[in-house]
Structure formats: structure tokens, C-alpha cells
Design brief:
7-stranded mixed beta sheet, 465 residues, alpha/beta, Aldehyde Dehydrogenase, Chain A, domain 2, single chain, 18 strands, Aldehyde Dehydrogenase, Chain A, domain 1, binds nicotinamide-adenine-dinucleotide
Length: 465
């Protein structure tokens, strides 16, 4: 079907990139370094276009836009460029005496042509940060930004070909038909960021060619506030994590499990934190974002139906504004507790003891992040041992992906595969074990007929293991 209208010409694009990859042009360290430098240059020279697009799509303020998208991507590229030679260096593996003289090593070989499908909430970071990993590992790639953040998709599509090697990289814009046609192609790797429902669509398509995938998905991130927590610091960090980007962050706290004895003071601190960050009317705060579109706005406002609002709750459809909202007396089976909220609403549930917390977390799919606010270290250790999540933080939340060498990614329903720093490099490589064996010695005991040298052979084979 390559080149037919049904495939939108994607077959030809993949074939061109695969041809280039197979020519070996993407393998030299110098080429990779040049592409990483080009990303740094693009993020610097075109930063105003990226800032404007992030404002237009999400009303993201410049400080957040720099920390999570523009500067973040430039720094990720610089970090990879600086560490590339070390990551790429083959890892020596010791060989058994019976094989001497020999040596073995792990090479980190590129996979080929990757497809990167991004989500809309951090539209620059979620497409270009996987691209940094793909480049470091020596791959070609096609990038498909989310159509739900159209201004960012347009800026990426406009500038990326100006800076990066067009024989190795393309940007495809579009929605479901285009993504479906892309998934029809044979890829050497697929990197998907989005929800678990589309994650299943991606994995099904990948299965046809046994293509390896990284799935960066979402989920409901539990956040525990223990009786021993520093309540004012916990409230401020949770407020930042939940209400940055108007709550549209995959690692944000999705719901709070607060120990009953500190629930009252914690709620008061949380409300105070919101007011000190965004003022009495967050609508006028230059630091507070908007909901990405009306579909998501309607979905989120629907979650407020019948809920008990402790703080916030105001909304304005024309402005796609929903105030930072805290819900209390939330039942575990209420609508807001069924799916990832992905917006500025934070349900707070009371718990009596650690067992309650563990039961609640274990009764739900494995989340992307798990956050524990407790000064009592045993509490954190116990909760980490008794639960599973992609990442976790103790006395903080949401920001752990900013630590460059901390593996980032989900587990179970929240995804598979890790990236950032060397973890991203590894995700895009084939760890290829290679044995280099000398022909100087060639012990006969390894070959049939086995009846000969039986005792000696047993000894030699054992030393080979
Ligand atoms: P989504 O799953 O709706 O879409 C993601 C991408 O898939 C988009 O590029 C879209 O064009 C494409 N797509 C949509 N429908 C498709 C279909 N039927 N077939 C093929 N492709 C299709 O996700 P979203 O709404 O963009 O993002 C929100 C979700 O992403 C949340 O669940 C959030 O937690 C998650 N997320 C995860 C991370 C992470 O790093 N783990 C980061 C950001 C967002």
C-alpha cells in the first residue's frame, strides 16, 4: 500500500527513513551529537514560538512552559549529548575459563525507524523528549504530535525540519485517521504517550510486526497524607502538583487519602495554599491555566454533579476555566473516583489507618505515581513495600520526572518501559550480546561423540556456565 492515498504517503516516508538508517548514516556519534545540538538550538532560537503555542493551546505561563517543555527539552538534549559516548560504550562481560581466549560484550545497537505519538498536555516535552532518546541511540523517527494541542503541533512541524536531518526525521500532523494509517506501517519501535484505551490500540497494532513499544499512560495517582506529615509543606506541594497546568498532568495527585486525625487542618492548609498561589479569584491569575477544549471541560464539570465542594467549583465554559476545586466526603464509588480526573479537581478521602490505604491502592489499577507525605520514615517504607506504581515520591509529588536520570514510566495499567537520560537511550537500543572467541584453542571435549572424555567433558562444561 506504500504511496497510496489510504496510507497518506506514510509508507514512502518510512521507506525513506529506513533506507537512510540502513545506510549507516545515523550511527556515528558525531551525527547523533549534531542532531542533539540542533534540538538545543531549535529550543533556544524558536523559544518564543513554542511559548506562544503553549499559551495558545493551554494558556501555560512562561515559567512552567520553560521548566516542563522548552528548557526541559533543550536540557535533555544537552544531557544526552554530554553522556552519549559513555552510554554507547560497549559493556564488557567476563567469559568462562573454558572458552579462553575469549571476550564478550554488550553492544547498544539502534533499532531502526521509530514512531513517536504524543499527548496534548505537555505537547512539546512528550514528543521531543522521546526524540532525544531515539537520536541518542542512533535511530530515525517519525513524530506525531497530538492534534488536541494544534498550535504546538504546528510549531513542531514547522521548525523540526529546519533544524534536524530531514532524511532521518519527519513530523506528521493529524488525528485518528492519520495515526491509524501510521500504525499500519511496520516500525522498529513505537513510543506512545496517552491514555490506556488508545495504548491498547497501539499495542494491538504493534503486535502485528512484534514491534517493541514504550507505553507512557496515565491513571489515578494516590497521594497519602499521614498523621506525621508536615501539613503546610504537604499542602503547598500537593497544590502545585495538582493545579499546575490546571490539573492536566499525568503525574499529578489524582486523589488524597488523608488520615482522619489531620484531615481538618490539612484541608485548611490546602485551601490556604491555593489562595496564596492564585489569589481569591484564580481566573485572573497569570499563572493559572485553562482546560484544553470544551469536550474535556464538559467531562470535568460533569464530575462536580452531586459532589460536596470544600473550595472552588466555579467554572466558565466560554473561557474553558474551572477553578482549583477540592471535594470532600467523597465515596469510593463516586464518578470522580472511577477514572483519571486529568483536571483541576481534587477529591479528599479520609482514612483510619495504613491498612485502609493499602487496601484502597491495591483495589485499583497500578498508578503512574504514588505520593506519601509522612515524617515517619517507617510509614513511607511500609507503603512502598506494600504497593506498586510507575514512580513514587516521599514528601513531594509530580516533579520526579524532572530528575534527569530517574527512570520515568508506568507499570501495569499505567504503562510499560522507562525513559529519560540513559533509560531513554536503553529503551531505543537492542542490547546485543556478542562473543569474540579466538580460534587458537579448540577443545575437542565440547564436540560429539560425547561418550569419549565423559568425565573431563562434565568438568569443562560446568566451568563454561
Ligand atoms: P489519548 O490517548 O487520547 O491520545 C494520545 C495520542 O493518541 C494522540 O496523539 C492522538 O492523536 C492519538 N489517538 C487518539 N485516538 C486514537 C485512535 N483511536 N487510534 C490511534 N491513535 C489515536 O491521550 P491524550 O488525551 O492526548 O492524553 C491524556 C492521557 O495521556 C492521560 O491518560 C494522561 O495521564 C496520559 N499521559 C501520560 C503521560 C506519561 O508520560 N505517562 C504523559 C502525559 C499524558
Amino acid at each position: 500500500m506504500a504511496g497510496t492515498p489510504a496510507d497518506h504517503g506514510f509508507g514512502a516516508i518510512v521507506a525513506r527513513h529506513r533506507g537512510y538508517f540502513e545506510s549507516g548514516k545515523t550511527r556515528p556519534v558525531e551525527w547523533r551529537e549534531a542532531q542533539l545540538t540542533a534540538i538545543e538550538t531549535m529550543m533556544t532560537e524558536r523559544s518564543d514560538d513554542f511559548f506562544a503555542a503553549l499559551w495558545s493551546d493551554l494558556r501555560r505561563n512562561r515559567v512552567d512552559a520553560d521548566a516542563t517543555d522548552v528548557r526541559f527539552v533543550a536540557d535533555e538534549a544537552a544531557h544526552a549529548r554530554r553522556h552519549l559516548k559513555r552510554w554507547l560504550h560497549p559493556e564488557a562481560i567476563s567469559t568462562p575459563l573454558a572458552l579462553a581466549p575469549a571476550r564478550a560484550e554488550v553492544r547498544f545497537d539502534p533499532l531502526g525507524v521509530g514512531l513517536i505519538i504524543g499527548a496534548w498536555n505537555y505537547p512539546v516535552m512528550l514528543t521531543l523528549s522521546p526524540l532525544v532518546a531515539a537520536i541518542s541511540a542512533g535511530n530515525a523517527a517519525v513524530i506525531k504530535p497530538s492534534e488536541v494541542a494544534p498550535a504546538c503541533a504546528e510549531v513542531i512541524a514547522r521548525h523540526l525540519p529546519e533544524y534536524l536531518d530531514p532524511e532521518a526525521f519527519s513530523v506528521v500532523t493529524g488525528g485518528v485517521p492519520e495515526t491509524t494509517a501510521l500504525l499500519d506501517q511496520r516500525w522498529d519501535h513505537i513510543f506512545f504517550t496517552g491514555g490506556p484505551a488508545i495504548g491498547r490500540v497501539v499495542m494491538t497494532a504493534a503486535a502485528r510486526h512484534l514491534t517493541p513499544v514504550v507505553l507512557e499512560l496515565g491513571g489515578k495517582n494516590p497521594t497519602i497524607v499521614h498523621s506525621s506529615a508536615n501539613l503546610s509543606v504537604a499542602a503547598r506541594r500537593i497544590a502545585q502538583g495538582r493545579w499546575q497546568n490546571a490539573g492536566q498532568t499525568c503525574t499529578a495527585p489524582d486523589y488524597i487519602l488523608v488520615f482522619k486525625d489531620v484531615a481538618g487542618p490539612f484541608l485548611a492548609e490546602l485551601k490556604a495554599a491555593v489562595q496564596s498561589f492564585y489569589g481569591d479569584d484564580p481566573r485572573h491569575s497569570p499563572d493559572y491555566g485553562r482546560i484544553v477544549n470544551h469536550r474535556h471541560f464538559d467531562r470535568l464539570v460533569g464530575l462536580l454533579d452531586g459532589a460536596e465542594v470544600y473550595h472552588g467549583g466555579q467554572h466558565d465554559r466560554d473561557d474553558r476555566y474551572i477553578a482549583p476545586t477540592i471535594l470532600v466526603n467523597v465515596a469510593a464509588d463516586s464518578p470522580v473516583m472511577q477514572e483519571e480526573i486529568f483536571g483541576p479537581i481534587l477529591p479528599v478521602l479520609d482514612v483510619d489507618c495504613i491498612e485502609d490505604v493499602i487496601t484502597t491502592i491495591r483495589s485499583r489499577p497500578k498508578p503512574l505515581g504514588l505520593y506519601i507525605f509522612a515524617e515517619d520514615r517507617d510509614v513511607a517504607a511500609r507503603l512502598l513495600d506494600a504497593t506498586e506504581s510507575g514512580d513514587a515520591a516521599v514528601n513531594d509529588c509530580t516533579i520526579q520526572p524532572l530528575i534527569r536520570e530517574l527512570p520515568f514510566g508506568g507499570v501495569g495499567e499505567s504503562g510499560m518501559g522507562k525513559y529519560h537520560g540513559e533509560w531513554g537511550f536503553r529503551a531505543y537500543t537492542n542490547a546485543r550480546g556478542v562473543l569474540y572467541h579466538s580460534t587458537i584453542l579448540d577443545l575437542g571435549v565440547r564436540y560429539p561423540p560425547y561418550s569419549e572424555h565423559e568425565r573431563l567433558r562434565g568438568f569443562v562444561m560446568r566451568t563454561m556456565m
